[in-house]
Amino acid sequence: MKIISYNVNGIRAAITKGFLDWLQQANPDIICLQEIKAIEDQIPTQDITAAGYPFQYYFSANKKGYSGVAILSKIEPKKIVYGTGIEHMDFEGRNLRADFENLSVMSLYLPSGTNLDRLDHKFKYMDDFQNYINGLKKETPNLVICGDYNICHQEIDIHDPIRNKTVSGFLPEERAWLDAFMKSGFVDSFRHFNKDPHNYSWWSYRAGARGNNKGWRIDYNLVSENLKERMSRAVILPEAKHSDHCPIMVEVD
User: Fold this and answer.
1) pTM for this one?
2) Burial class, 252, CB count within 10 angstroms (exposed 0-12 / middle 13-18 / buried 19+)
3) pLDDT of residue 250
4) 189: which of 53, 66, 110, 250 fits an S-S bond (Cβ 3.0–4.6 Å)?
5) Cα 115 to Cα 94: distance, rounded to the nearest angstrom
């Protein structure tokens, strides 16, 4: 099963930049989208069906044009779960899960901490999300959590660790949370296969950051530890340029 995660920074904008043509070429079985910035009625669902994805699920934020996640699939899930049941997490449309025969796939869009209020919200979200996943793993052990975590895990995952050490996304407390989250039973699929530096999934639109590869790796496909031996490949796909992020892929047998 080929699974892709992609923060599209607006699904309608991405489609105007050739997203659907790219999707047909990439041909994942499942793609998890973040920051769709639309409700289902605003999305050309028929075009997405024609591109090969008849099973489409959208969980939008209450605020129009903001946040939101989606899962597009070639395979019909057994069950779809919208949100976590925790109100402060769900009103911004940040969690959507599809359960298949022996695998569950979640699209996650973790908040950014752009100011003090949002940083407090991010930390509360992170703590409550950890507790939610701790419970979920007991009933859904084969879990792949795909998405934009808005955190660089280690210095290798950011182009300038020194000057960014006080910036949200690379704060010691954020990194410690992500490290503990992984150690609670998840494998960073990309790092499982690739230990090299200069591999990023997000670049600022400013100062030619993408052209100069001054990026951050903040998107992850985290795979349950018990699925580790079933992973066959994990890559970042920087050639896709429909967003300030790029897609990331994992293959699970």
Assistant:
1) 0.98
2) buried
3) 98
4) 250
5) 19
